[in-house]
TrEMBL record:
InterPro entries: AAA+_ATPase, ABC_transporter-like_ATP-bd, ABC_transporter-like_CS, P-loop_NTPase. One of its GO terms (molecular function) is ATP binding. Transmembrane segments: none annotated. Coiled coil: none annotated. Residues 4-234 form the ABC transporter domain. It comes from Caldicellulosiruptor morganii. This is ABC transporter ATP-binding protein. The keyword Nucleotide-binding applies. It comes from the Bacteria. PANTHER family: LINEARMYCIN RESISTANCE ATP-BINDING PROTEIN LNRL. It holds the Pfam family ABC_tran. Keywords: ATP-binding, Nucleotide-binding.
Amino acid sequence: MDVVKVENLVKRYKDTLALDNLSLTVKEGEIFGILGPNGAGKTTLINCILGLLPYDSGKITIFDRAMDINRANLKSQIGLVPQDIALYSNLTVQENLTFFGSLYNLKGNILKERIDWALEFVMLSDMRNVRVKNLSGGMKRRLNIACSILHKPRLLIMDEPTVGIDANSRRLILDSVKKLNKEGTTIIYTSHYIEEVEEICSFISIINRGRVLVSGTKEKLQDMVSEDNLIVIKVEELFWNVVDKLKSIRGVKEVLTKDRQITITAGKREADIKDIVNAVSEGSRIISMEFKKPTLEMVYLTIVGNNIKEEGDEK
Ligand SMILES: Nc1ncnc2c1ncn2[C@@H]1O[C@H](COP(=O)(O)OP(=O)(O)OP(=O)(O)O)[C@@H](O)[C@H]1O
């Protein structure tokens, strides 16, 4: 099932074209990563999806139904973790949760249960009576998440939820996102931290200047930019002419050896892996063999590369 379908979305702010015919589809059960530099259009896209911002043209459907600003029944199935922390600093953790829970019409025992569950989820159970102003930045971000999941949304949209926090809170947030997804929530996760998207997202769209540059699983994106295979072979013992032997194979570009490990860079189209395996196994027993892929950061830089236009670049 398509949870969100965005078709040819166009959004202008006066002279700025923030979304330029943008299309994407989020399927049920995905952690859908939207990666892009500052000013790429991520927040604008999210606000349009949520029905918080009118757009110039295009179509948005959520759970197969057209989204518009008045669709309370659709909105009640969506949670938003906004980029800016939205909490009452003079109220305690528990009071904030009670307030946000009441906005979702949660009351009595159900509200109490959900608050306990959400606090446990973000590991803040022992902070419930602390005023928000006395929490660390990371704790505030975690409470922001707890407030957005009280109504157990089917779709959770997280807009850069880990900006400016410590490593411990970041880890807790990433783990809680994965856990929430395992329990059935579809998640849209925007970030410009590439390694976070790489770790948690099952599908990724890289956007810039209001357009989708590429979309796919991490593996698909890696394949798109990688012309070469990086093959790491561990052997029982290195034999004297292994480098020359491998280098004589068509398509092999580089061979490095260290201890009992051989790292081979070979053109995907030219080199035949069988020839490489044969050449190595003639001289020694192969203990293990592994194909390494480029990191998502390499993919991102290759695709967005010089194309990056961040806020203020043209000023
Ligand atoms: N209210 C607004 N009025 C005018 N221009 C805006 C407004 N909001 C965003 N923009 C512009 O639209 C473009 C997309 O901005 P948006 O905030 O959606 O990007 P983003 O990818 O979320 O960036 P960031 O990571 O910095 O939040 C930018 O050029 C931005 O300057």
